[in-house]
Specification:
Helix content is 74%, strand content 0%. The chain has 10 helices and no strands. It has one domain. Helix 3 (48-62) packs across helix 7. The chain is globular, with a radius of gyration of 18 Å. The longest helix has 33 residues, at 129-161. It has 255 residues and is mainly alpha-helical. It starts with a helix and ends in a 10-residue tail after the last helix. The chain has helices at 2-16, 18-22, 48-62, 65-68, 71-96, 101-124, 129-161, 170-191, 196-214, 221-245.
Length: 255
Amino acid sequence: MPLLNLLLAALLPVAGVLSSLLGIGHPLWAMPGVRTLVVPAPYAFSIWGPIFVLALAWGFWQARPAQRADPQVARLRGPAAAAFAAMLAWMVAAQLTPNGWHLLAIMLVLLAAALLALGRATAAARDTPGWRWIARPLFGLLAGWISAAAVVNLSGAAAAEGFGWFGLAPSVVAMGLVLLAAWIATTVLRRNRGDRWYAGAVLWALAAIIAAQLSARMPDYAVALIAALGLLMVATASRLAGRQQSGVQPEAYPG
């Protein structure tokens, strides 16, 4: 399992540019489909850079002799490998196939694995460099970004498949989806001691939705306002849940 984690992490940057390497399909940033009102500004997707770097750092760190026999690290390897594998599958499918429900299904598997990894990383409550700067940032950022990305994928898949949301106006649908993302985030934060890395990734996504609307040729101010409300909800939930974390004494372990 340690070698599998390292291998999958090393493949992530390659999979992200697969279409360019093979000369087929389309880049991730040019996924065919309808651009919906919940798609964040393009700069938001730069978060994949830190996630890929942290994933590779995790791959090497968890394979070190000091971590190989660590039961807390061992509990993370399964969901981490599942999350990396789902990421690889999603990136390959997104570059080689049109948008649709299949991409959403893969994204939901990724979300489940990322949330499981986040929960186990948070429960470990360790305060060593490896946990502080690799494990918790990686799984917090990944789970937070995917929580928001899953909602964006739902919107895009529905548009690509022709699902009409029962005749509701696009603006109403977008506001509902933004609130869904905020609700998911606040629920996760309450169960994970207000993890700041998770909160930061969701706040990054919500802020980018606001930026996308304010910079659009025909901005939807209602969607931007709801995204701002969601941003406030997530920030507040992180702060309140974080008070619980301050009372937890980290365990002292090597690594």
